[in-house]
Amino acid sequence: MTSILSRAAIAGGCLLALTAGSAIAQEMAKPDGFGDRPITIIVPYGAGGGSDQLTRAMASAMEEVSDLSFQVVNKPGGGGTAAIPDFMLARADGYTIMEAIDDAVSAYASGEIRENPAEDWIPLCMAQITFNQLYIRSDDERFSDWESFVAYAKDNPGEVSIANVGKAKSMERISMDQLEEVVGIETKQISFDKPAERYGALIGGHVDALFEQPGDVRNFLEAGQMKPIVTFLNERPELFSDTPTIREVGAEFEPLTRFRGFYVKAGTPEDRVAYLEAVCEAGFNTESFQNFNKDKFMDVIDSYRDREGAVELINNAAQTYKEKFAEMSN
Amino acid sequence: MDLFFGGTLALFGSFHTSLIFALGLVGGMLFGAIPGVNMLTLGAVLLPFTATMDPTEAVMLFSVIYCAGVFGGAITAILFNIPGAPENAPTCFDGYPMTQKGEAGKAIGAAVMCSAVGGVASAILMMTATGLVASFAIRSFGPPEIFALIFFGLAVSASIGAKTLWKGWLSVFAGLLIATVGTDPVAGVPRFNEGSFFGLQYQSYYLSAGIHFIPMILGFFAVSEVLAQSINISKGTRERPKAALDFPSLAEFWRVRFTMLRSIVIGFFSGVLPGIGATLAAFLGYSQAQRWSKNGKNFGKGELEGVVASETANNSATGAAMIPLLALGLPGGALTAMIMGIFQIHGMEPGPLIFINSSDLVWVTFAAMFWANVAIIGLGWVQTKTVVHILRIPFRWLAPGILMLATVGAFGLRNLMIDVWVMFLAGVVGYFLRATGYSAAGIVLGLILGKLGESAFAKSMQLMDFNLLGFFERPIAAILILLGLAAIVTSIVSEIRGKEIQKALLD
Predict the structure, then answer these.
(1) Tell me, what's the pLDDT at A134?
(2) Is B387:B29 a contact under the CB 8 Å cutoff?
(3) Chain A contact present for B357, CB below 8 A
C-alpha cells in the first residue's frame, strides 16, 4: 500500500513542480507567515458525495495554482450541520476552510443554525451553481411533456407522486411548493433521503416524477430513460432549449438554486482572505477543474461567484427562504 | 465466456496491471481490517489519481479494494471482537468465542474460505444475470417491499445473542429507540436534540445528527469485552486463549454446505437492493443459519457455522451491489458511488447502455471481482498462519492496543471527539447488559435496521396514502410481513413451551 501512495505522491509532486510559479504566485504575494502548514477543508458531508468530490477537485486545482497544501476532512451528519461546531471552534486564521451548500442558508433562515453564512462566515468563492428540473420517465404513456403532465395531475388531484428530498424546509421542497401553487396542481411529495433510491423509484415505476438537478441524473438523461419537463430558471439554458422554464408556465417567483462554495470564519485577517479568494478563483479557472465541472453539468449556467457575488447570492436566497417560512408558519 | 477471458487477460496481461491488482488486494484488506480507516478512506485518497490512470486499471483497482475490504473486517472481529465494518458484526458472535476456545485459526480459516466462496458465487451470478436481476429488483422492490424485508429481518433476528427471547426483544427495541434520536427522515424534524434532563438544559448539533452505529458497535463489542476480560484477570479467572493455527478441514466445510448456499442466496438478494446491502445480508444470513441449523443452540458460543453464515453472506452481497450500479447507474453505497465516479471521469456512464458502449470494461470489473475473491483464499491462508500469533501477546499489552484501535475507529468516523465518549459509554453499558443476559447485538441490529426501516416505512405510508393495509395489497411485501409475523409467533410459542419443559424436568 505504501508504495502505491508514495507513487501517487511522486506523481502529485511532479505535477506541482511543472506548474510551480504559476498565475497566482506571480499576481499576488502570499501573506507573511501564512500557508506554511496544510490548510484543512471541512466537508460537512460524507466521502464520495457531491460536496466531497467538488472539494477534492477544488483542493487539487488550488494546489496546482499556489504552493498551499490542503487536507480534506469529512464530518458528515445532521444534513450538514454536525460539522459547524468544529468549524466555529477553529481559530479564525485562514487554516480552516469549510465547504457549504445552500442548505446552510435555509437552515439559518429557519433558525436551525445560528450562524449567518453571509456574516458569520466569509465566502471565498462559489464553485458550483446549478438549478432544478422536474423529470419523468421517457416511456411514460400517461404524459410526455409539461402540458400533458399538468393535465394528468389536474384529472387526478393528489394522486401524482413526486420523489423529492424529505426535509420540509429545504430548497427542493420549497421550490416544488411554489410551483404547485402557481400551476394549481396538488401532488404527493415522497421523502427519499438517499439520491440513488430517488432515481431508482422513478426508473422502477414507484413514483411518477422526480425533482432533481441535472448533473445528478446525467446518465439517465443521456441513456434516454428520463426527460426534463420543466426547468426552474428564468431563461432556457442552451442545453435544455426544448424544455419550458417556470417563468413560461406562469411562475413569478425567483427560482432557488443549489450552490456550493468555500468559507472561512469571520475575523480571519483580511490579507489572508484576499489571498485565499484569489487562489480560489485561479483554481476554478484551471483546465482540470473546468473539465470536472463540465462533467457534472455545472457549466450549463455560470457556476462562479466571487466574494461579493456569493454574499449577494446568499442574501437573496436567505430573503426568499425567510419570506416562505413566515408564510408557512401562518 | 470469451468476454470473461478478455477481462482476465486485461487484468494479468502485463506486470503493471498484476501489480495494481496485488496492491489493491493488500490495501483493501489492510484498510478493511483496521477500524477507523476503511476501504472508503483508501478509495477517497486514491480517487483523484484515477483520472490519470487507464480506465481499465482504475476500475479494476476499486473493484478489488471493494472485495478485499469487506473481507478484511472479519479478522479483527474474530481476534479482538472489533468488527472492522458493520457487516462484520455478526462474525463477532461466534468468531470471537472461537478465539477464546483456542480456535482462532479455524475461525479465520472459515472466514477466508467463506468470503471467497460467497464472493466468487456472487461474481458468477453477476456475470450471468446482471441485466435481468437489476430490472427485476428495481421494479419489484419499492419502499413497501424494502420495509417488509427489514421487518422480516428484525423478526427473525430478534433473539440473537440474548439469554431469553424477551431480553432479546427488549434489546432490539432499545436499539430501535436509539435510532429515533436525530433528524427524522420524513420532514427533517430534529428529535431529542434539545430539552432538559434532570433540570439540565441541553441543545446539541451532535444529537440532531443522530447516534451513529459505529461508535455503538465499537463500544458494545470491543470496549465492553476489554472490560469483561480485565475484570476476569483481576479475579484471576481468565484463561489466555491458545493461538491455534489449524485450518478448518474439508469435512467441516462439507458439514456447513447448506448454510453456505443459503447465505449466498440471502447475501445476493440483499446486496441487489440499493442501500440495504451487506449489513442486513450478514445479520439475515446469521439468523437464518441459527434457525435452520441442528446446532442452533450453540450459536453465540463459538460455532463455526455462525462465522460461515455471516461471512459468506456479506461477501456475496458485494457482487450483487455492483448489479444496480452497472445496469441502472444506481450506486448502493459510498464505495460503489466512487466506482461510478471513475466510470464518469473516463467519460462512461453506468446504466443500461454500458453493456453496449463499454462492454470490455464491465467484464474487467467482473473478472477483477472474481479473481480478487479467489486471491483472498491464498492471502487469507497466509494470514491464518501469521496474524493468529498476535494472541500470544499478553492481554495487558494487547488491551491498550484494542482500545486505541477502537478509539481511532470511533473518532475516524466523522472526526468528532464526542463519538469516542459515546463509544466508551456504550462500552460500560454494554458490559452490564451482557452480564445480565441482554444482547448488545440486538441493540446494534435495532439501531441499524431502525433507521433504514423508518425511512422505508415513511416512504411507503406517503405512497400508499397512509393506509397500513396497503402492505397486504402488494404480494412480495405481504409474504415477507406474514413470514415475519409467523417467526415472531413461533418463537414466542417455543419460548413458553421451552420453559414448561424445563419446569417439568425440574419437578
Answers:
(1) 96
(2) no
(3) no
Residue A167 touches partner B, C-beta closer than 8 Å: yes
DSSP symbol at B246 = P
Radius of gyration of chain A (CA): 21
Task: Sketch out chain A's domains with CATH numbers.
Answer: 6-130+257-329 (3.40.190.150), 133-240 (3.40.190.10)
- Cell (9 digits) for A25: 504566485
Helix (H) / strand (E) containing B305: helix B304-323
Q: Which of B185, B324, B415 is closest, CB to CB, to A75?
A: B415
User: What CA–CA distance (Å, rounded) separates A160 from A75?
Assistant: 37
Quote the ipTM score. 0.74
Higher pLDDT, B334 or A24: B334
Find chain B residues with C-beta within 8 A of A46's C-beta.
334
Q: How many helices and strands, by DSSP H and E, does chain A display? A: 12, 10
Runs of H (alpha helix) within A20-160: 23-27, 50-65, 84-89, 103-109, 146-155
Comparing A173 with B357, the larger pLDDT belongs to A173
* Inter-chain CB proximity B185 and A84 less than 8 Å: no
Closest Cβ opposite residue B338 in set A48, A194, A205? A48
Strands (E), A152-291: 161-164, 188-191, 209-212, 226-231, 258-265
Distance CA(B454)–CA(B450), nearest Å, equals 6
Query: How does pLDDT run across B342-373, given as a tens digit for each residue?
Result: 877 776 777 767 777 777 778 888 888 888 88
Return d(Cα B48, Cα A12) in angstroms, integer.
Answer: 10
A226 contacts: CB under 8 Å, gap ≥ 6: A135, A136, A137, A138, A202, A203, A210, A217, A220
Who has greater pLDDT, A268 or B323?
A: A268
pLDDT in tens, B406-437: 888 888 777 778 889 999 999 999 999 988 98
Chain center to CA of B282: 5
By the CB < 8 Å criterion, does A33 face chain B? no
pLDDT of residue B270: 84
Count of CB atoms situated within 10 Å of the CB of B248: 24
Cα separation, B105 vs B177, in Å, equals 38
Q: What local confidence, expressed as pLDDT, does residue B293 receive? A: 82
Listed as ranges, residues in chain B with pLDDT below 50 are none
Task: Provide the pLDDT for residue A280.
Answer: 95
Q: Name the residue among B108, B69, B113 with its Cα closest to residue B87.
A: B69
pLDDT band at A16 (very low <50, low <70, confident <90, very high): very low
CB contact under 8 A, B414 and A192: no
**Size of chain A, expressed as the number of residues it contains:** 330
Instruction: Please name the residue of chain B whose CA is at the shortest distance from the CA of residue A56.
Output: B48
CA dist A125 and A308 (Å) reads 9
State yes or no: pLDDT of A112 exceeds 60: yes
Q: Is B285 in contact with B266 (CB distance < 8 Å)?
A: yes
The pLDDT of A135-158, averaged and rounded, is: 94
Quote the DSSP letter at residue B248: P
Residues 6+ apart with CB under 8 A from A297: A130, A213, A214, A215, A218, A239
Q: Does A188 touch chain B (CB under 8 A)?
A: yes
pLDDT of residue B283: 87
**pLDDT for the residue B376:** 85
Question: pLDDT band for position A10 (50/70/90)?
Answer: very low
Contacts (Cβ under 8 Å, ≥6 apart) of B300: B93, B94, B97, B160, B161, B306
What is the pLDDT, as a whole number, of residue B36?
56
DSSP A46-86: -TTSHHHHHHHHHHHHHHHHSS--EEEEE---GGGTTTHHH
